[in-house]
Amino acid sequence: MSIVIKNLKKSYGDQIIFDDFNLVLQEKKITGILGPSGAGKTTLLNLCCGLEKPDSGTIEGINPTSISYIFQEPRLLPWRTIRENLRFVFKGQSIKKSGSHDKEIDEMLRMVGLDTVGDYYPQELSGGMRQRVAIARAFLYPSELLLMDEPFSSLDLMLKNKLMGDFLKIWEQDKRTVVFVSHNQEEINQLAHEVLTFSDKPVRVLKRETIY
Amino acid sequence: MISTKLQNKQIQSLIKIAKKIGVALFWVLLWAVAAWWVDSSLVLPSPLDTLKGIITLSGNFKFFVSIGVTLLRVFGGVTISVALGLVLGLIGGLNKPFYEIMNPFVSIIKSLPVVSVIILINLWIASGVVPLVVTFLICFPVTWTNVVQGVHATDDNLLQMAKVYNVSQQRIIRDIYIPAVKPYAVSALMNAIGLGWKVTVTAEVLANALPSVGMNLYYSKIYLETDLLFSWTFVIVMCSYIIEKVTLYIIERNKRKGADQCQLS
């Protein structure tokens, strides 16, 4: 089911971010969103996952309990190991004890090249490794929609290319609907099936193009 | 290479200990000079008189009974206030209406003079229990305020992540709020221990609680046994210091790796 945004309105004080905004996002595709800083790209993701509420309008086609989100920062629990951080998002799975999801977790850690650091704490890993944990967490969580807010922006070029490769490899397996926000045209072109270019506030879609 | 490093570390820690002993000796020496200059053990007993006083006191079984009962009061008051402060502070931090109800009560207790609380409580309950209740009343607001602050300072980014991933409230409390509140709770515990001693002993004096360290201090004062007054004060300071160190040691031992890392990684 596609995501349908209808007559969306959202403002912060005098600043109108979305004013009668309409958009359809394709199901099981990666949609990339480009746009200037502060235009409202992150706000759109936050509205989609319920972290923020619209002033008016609707967003249809999203199951609120079935969303994964890769934030700009990894957002890992610093007092938990990598494996415990991944168990954290599984309902009914003990965080400390191994359980039914451990096989998936080990498999995912192997896929993102972190199989040797499952018992490490986040602060013992590099920024890139932590971001890979965040990607692993997003894919491990059984979601229909994956939101990504500039997840590669803080990484160096080599690591970014490696992670984007890993990301596509994992995505190919279950083909979730992905909404991917970035400043970087290259990143978007490399990952997205469809690219939307947003204007400055209030947001309008300036360009919509299909990559492949 | 490694053994040289270890040796250096040992030397450094020995220098540190020597420095501490040096500083302590400096103050004891200053005290001794002041006592010699005053030349009246009634006004200012010397360190030697104080030490003699401790030796005399420790020869009497009642000395240990007094310390034991005072310790029980301190522990009782601090334990109850920290336990309740943790639970109610957590609820207050998470639930605004509960916070609104509790906050005036806590603010009033915080602003009450300790002596007024002691005298007032003494009108209502038995003398022996007064120090415990007063210690609770004085230490509880410290814990409550710290824990509420800890809950409010919990990293919003982690909470948002948990919300998106539909993590249960129970798990959010256990794995985000409680670890985030831990440093605040530890600081509250250390404050409560420090405060607990002072308040308990003061309450023991004002409430005539027996047996107690506080009443022994009081008797030393009325019988003009200044050397014993100093000895009892020294005992209180040492007990407070030892309990603080033991608590810190226990906290350090139980600290999980990474548990003190509250910043978002």
UniProtKB/TrEMBL annotation, chain A:
Keyword Oxidoreductase set for record: no
The keyword Nucleotide-binding is assigned to this record: yes
Transmembrane regions: none
Species: Acetobacterium paludosum
Keywords: ATP-binding, Nucleotide-binding, Transport
Every ABC transporter domain range: 3-211
Annotated Pfam families: ABC_tran
GO molecular function terms listed in the Swiss-Prot or TrEMBL record: ATP binding; ATP hydrolysis activity
PANTHER family xrefs: ALIPHATIC SULFONATES IMPORT ATP-BINDING PROTEIN SSUB, TAURINE IMPORT ATP-BINDING PROTEIN-RELATED
Protein name stated in the entry: ATP-binding cassette domain-containing protein
Automatic annotation (TrEMBL), chain B:
Domain (ABC transmembrane type-1): residue spans on this chain: 67-247
GO terms (BP aspect): transmembrane transport
Coiled-coil portions: none
SUPFAM superfamilies noted in UniProt: MetI-like
Protein name (record): ABC transporter permease subunit
Pfam families: BPD_transp_1
Predominant place of localization: membrane
Family: Belongs to the binding-protein-dependent transport system permease family.
Membrane topology: Multi-pass membrane protein
Record-linked InterPro entries: MetI-like, MetI-like_sf
Location in the cell: Cell membrane
Transmembrane segments: 21-38, 63-91, 112-138, 229-251
UniProt organism field: Acetobacterium paludosum
GO cellular component assignments: plasma membrane
Keyword field: Cell membrane, Membrane, Transmembrane, Transmembrane helix, Transport
